[in-house]
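Example 3.2
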Amino acid sequence: MFVKLTENKLAETQNFRTSITLNKPSSAPLDIKFAKIKAVTFALRPAPLQESLDALKKRLGPTPGVYSAEPAVLDFSGWSEAELVEHGIELKAYAELLQAAGVLLVETRGHGTALESQAEELGIRFETGQADQAEPEQEPLPVQADAPSAAAKPDTEPGLIQANHPAVPNFDNARRTMVIDQSVRSGQKIYAQGADLIVMGQVSAGAEVIADGNVHVYGVLRGRALAGAAGDNQARIISTCFEAELVAVAGYYLTFEGGFPEENRSKPTLIHLDHGTEPAALRLKAINIR
């Protein structure tokens, strides 16, 4: 359903006069407000259906994973109508995969009546548009196709396209910092959009701290910490006492169901993305802060 807003006007005829007053408080039990919602965009490149689904499943990570409870957009704008037919794309299969990971599919982008019809059957918004163009010779990242990240060797994994930013920092546009002067309790979620995040306290199990930049936890990190959420693969996570459930940098993640490395358990630790491996991988590094 679409709601079309029109300008309220003074209606006047020979027999009656009606005026509509703007911003008048309403006693009705329902008001309509329009707001922008931040959603993660999975930009897929042409590939056979199962191969594409496998790539998406790998990037979604564990369940509950990095993107649990997040709204999502599937972007097929880089596909032609013929490629959608050739690879037997079934939107329902993607929606079920996302749902199993706790991710809500709210929109699909692409071309062609076939894809639009599938979206309509599933009750998902469809938008026709061009794909965001990624710069050449840069590393595909798992999500945030509209957001920047540092240049690196390209990944050959099918199914995802990402845009990146230069590895050389621009100090004229220095990143802001969000400081939380207390502990983050279980069930709480903190997001520092376009900023670094500093937590002056512990992050409890079941809590989540996220930043487009770096994440610093000056206390026990028992919950989940995600740095480089907008795709910055140079971001870092630093904890003075490392006991995390999950850590992620630019969508690459590590979980610790099997236990922690002895050199990192309950100790000051740096988490960063190692670009010297193929594919890139997260590394834990013990740090001495004494």
